[in-house]
């Protein structure tokens, strides 16, 4: 039980890693929300300030045009001067006759009056689209209107929260990538450490078992077939030790007859599983089709998938292994069973470390199988199809040797 306990610690860390990602995104959203709220308040205050300035401008004009001729209006013109000097707020004054006057709108002086009015009409429509309510000036005998747009500063502030939100999302995405990379790196260290330690621990009892088999071989009253099968199991354990020792280091790939490798392993597997499980191999590949593989690791992949299939069938059913050529110069190996299938909610998890539907499963078989095929053999391992109570099909795709 000790190895299981030691291994459960990294898996717990991986589960916490998911919460770290959620917390990271939550903090990012809160930061973005606070920024939007703060900037929105700032924009509202600036809008109100600009509106007050235009209202002051309108009151100045109204007072200047309707006041007594002897009234001192110099201080109003001083206010207008300050508005012109210190703001970029586009302003259009429409008098009772429909004539347009402007402030902070650049128009070439060389243009005719009609051309200037045409340009101001276009600008007026643009300003109206900004949804600022025009300021009405009651001149007594008629009403005139002041239309105003948003200053450049206000426009920038409106887009600033969006740009800031984009920056937060980019940072959040980079943080997610970093956490994912850290997780994979941690997984690699766990797999390598576990595999190396397992290979080391198996070495000593294997040596002893080999010696005991040699002693049994010389005992006349021992059935020779038993000794032969024991020898096969010891060879199998040596193969498993070799597999584990290859994890974490670059395995040596050799050209192998892919069908012969699978046939050889299935022959070994058949006598070690329930007799109620039948395994058939069908191949449409060319005779002696070679593939660049590490035999020990590749057999491990076939073993993991087949044993999962046997478990899914509860020791009774049919398994079919089909080898065929695929497009883009690849070999497909489809392994199908007639088991209970995989729930839709679990299909995205089956290759994740630590995920298992078995009571005593560690959730490593398919994870390691996928790593072996994709990291070491430059192939693909996918769940091709699954149906509840009808079975599942896994597909291994290997590149043909050049």
Automatic annotation (TrEMBL):
Query: What are the protein's GO molecular function terms?
Result: ATP binding
Task: Give the EC number.
Answer: 2.7.13.3
Q: What Pfam families does UniProt report for this protein, alphabetically?
A: HATPase_c (PF02518)
Q: Which SUPFAM superfamilies would you find in this protein's record?
A: ATPase domain of HSP90 chaperone/DNA topoisomerase II/histidine kinase
Indicate the transmembrane segments per the record. 20-39, 159-179
Q: Indicate yes or no for the key word ATP-binding.
A: yes
Give residue ranges for domain Histidine kinase.
Answer: 197-402
Q: Which UniProt keywords apply?
A: ATP-binding, Kinase, Membrane, Nucleotide-binding, Phosphoprotein, Transferase, Transmembrane, Transmembrane helix, Two-component regulatory system
InterPro entries xref list? HATPase_C_sf, HATPase_dom, His_kinase_dom, HisK_dim/P_dom, Sig_transdc_His_kin-like_C
- Catalytic activity of the protein: ATP + protein L-histidine = ADP + protein N-phospho-L-histidine
Asked if the Swiss-Prot or TrEMBL record annotates the protein with the keyword Zinc-finger, the reply is: no
Q: What protein am I looking at? A: histidine kinase
């Amino acid at each position: 039980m000790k190895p299981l306990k030691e291994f459960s610690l990294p898996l717990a860390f991986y589960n916490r890693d998911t919460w770290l990602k959620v917390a990271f995104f939550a903090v990012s959203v809160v930061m973005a929300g606070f920024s939007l709220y703060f900037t929105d308040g700032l924009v509202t205050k600036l809008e109100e300030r600009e509106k007050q300035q235009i209202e002051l401008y309108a009151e100045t004009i109204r007072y200047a045009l309707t006041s007594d001729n002897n009234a001192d209006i110099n201080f109003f013109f001083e206010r207008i001067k300050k508005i012109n000097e210190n703001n970029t707020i586009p302003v259009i004054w429409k008098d009772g006759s429909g004539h347009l006057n402007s402030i902070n709108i650049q128009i070439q002086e060389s243009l005719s009056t009609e051309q200037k009015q045409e340009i101001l009409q276009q600008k007026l429509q643009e300003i109206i689209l900004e949804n600022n309510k025009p300021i009405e000036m009651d001149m007594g005998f008629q009403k005139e209107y002041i239309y105003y747009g948003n200053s450049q500063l206000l426009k920038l502030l409106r887009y600033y929260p969006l740009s800031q939100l984009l920056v937060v999302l980019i940072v959040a995405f980079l943080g997610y990538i970093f956490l994912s990379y850290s997780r994979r790196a941690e997984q690699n260290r766990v797999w390598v450490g576990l595999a190396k330690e397992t290979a080391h621990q198996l070495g000593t009892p294997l040596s002893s078992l080999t010696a005991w088999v040699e002693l049994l071989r010389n005992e006349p009253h021992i059935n020779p077939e038993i000794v032969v099968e024991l020898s096969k199991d010891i060879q199998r354990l040596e193969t498993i030790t070799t597999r584990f020792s290859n994890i974490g280091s670059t395995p040596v790939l050799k050209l192998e007859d892919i069908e012969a490798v699978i046939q050889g392993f299935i022959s070994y597997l058949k006598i070690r599983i329930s007799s109620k499980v039948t395994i058939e191999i069908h191949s449409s590949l060319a005779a002696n089709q070679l593939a660049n593989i590490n035999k020990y690791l590749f057999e491990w992949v076939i073993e993991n998938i087949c044993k999962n299939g046997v478990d899914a069938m509860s020791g009774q059913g049919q398994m079919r292994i089909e080898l065929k050529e695929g497009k883009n110069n690849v070999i497909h190996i489809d392994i199908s069973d007639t088991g209970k299938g995989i729930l839709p909610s679990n299909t995205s998890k089956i290759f994740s470390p630590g995920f298992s539907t078995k009571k005593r499963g560690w959730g490593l078989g398919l994870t390691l199988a996928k790593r072996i095929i994709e990291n070491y053999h430059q192939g693909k391992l996918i769940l091709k199809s699954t149906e509840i109570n009808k079975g599942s099909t896994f597909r291994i795709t290997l590149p043909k040797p050049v």
